[in-house]
Specification:
mainly alpha
């Protein structure tokens, strides 16, 4: 078979793989983010560049979920969560100073936990869902605060670590699918040279996916820790590890942050898959 024909078949196979159900949400998130970031940069519309990541995360999450469902499940509520984080990012940018920023992030976590936990309006509903709300708010707050000053490399590596860890422990397929979207959106922001505020929807998205997987697993509410709970810690370990590696890699100059994030990601993925294999999960 001619080499040109082989190359065409390989390209066609790669194209169909990219459009498969597993990768489609991440691809949509990346394309939307990239288009908005480039558009904001070329047209000099700062608001569009700021919104790129949030629009990408919302669009990517809308692919495998049903945001307009009459009785939305937790995953179905994620696109609106991304838009809520985008709104907070725009307000944070308009304030143009750091005073009260962390209090605002905690407020975002509480509102996000309430929304993803079912948006109960009655006292009985809140009492019934308070454990799930607390779990979701806790993970969202941890991600928002931990990645408040992180760059796109660190946020993307953290999301990829969550995706890999959830895959390793055999979490329900929807969660690894959703975890890829913040990673793709964070990588798409490179076209617009995004600041930390623009990455807030991806950071919050990491916490929302991790917290959602933990809340629906139902193990932590009974005071136990299972494989999904440990997998949900993977993005935080990446952030901690990359911060420890960064001073040792300063000699690499501008390549130090991405190198630290990639090394931390590889280490966490190896640990996750090794632990899953040793415990019989794979």
């Amino acid at each position: 078979m001619p080499a040109a024909m082989l190359a065409y078949r390989d390209l066609e196979h790669g194209f169909h793989l990219a459009l498969s159900a597993e990768w489609r949400p991440a691809l949509v998130g990346f394309v939307v983010t990239l288009a908005a970031a480039l558009g904001g940069r070329l047209l000099r519309i700062d608001l569009l560049a700021l919104a790129a990541c949030g629009l990408g995360v919302a669009a990517g999450w809308a692919v495998p979920t049903h945001p307009l469902a009459a009785a939305p499940s937790l995953p179905d509520r994620l696109p609106e969560m991304a838009l809520l984080a985008l709104l907070f990012a725009c307000v944070d940018e308009a304030r143009s100073h750091l005073r009260g920023r962390y209090a605002m992030l905690l407020g975002l976590a509480l509102v996000g936990g309430w929304w993803l936990g079912g948006a109960a309006h009655s006292q009985a509903g809140l009492l019934h869902a308070w454990v799930s709300i607390a779990i979701l708010a806790g993970w969202i707050a941890a991600a928002a605060l931990l990645f408040a000053e992180a760059d796109a490399w660190c946020v993307a590596a953290a999301a990829l670590a969550l995706w890999a860890a959830l895959q390793a422990v055999g979490a329900p397929a929807i969660w690894p699918l959703l975890a890829l979207v913040p990673a793709a959106a964070a990588l798409g922001t490179f076209a617009g040279r995004a600041q930390e505020r623009a990455l807030l929807p991806a950071s919050v998205g990491i916490g929302a996916v991790a917290g959602g997987a933990v809340a629906l697993a139902g193990v932590l509410r009974h005071g136990r820790i299972g494989p999904i709970e440990l997998a949900a810690l993977a993005p935080f370990i990446v952030a901690w590890w990359s911060a420890r590696l960064l001073p040792r890699l300063r000699r690499l100059g501008s390549a130090a942050p991405p190198a630290a994030s990639v090394l931390a990601l590889v280490g966490v993925v190896l640990i996750a898959y090794s632990a899953a294999a040793l415990s019989g999960l794979r």
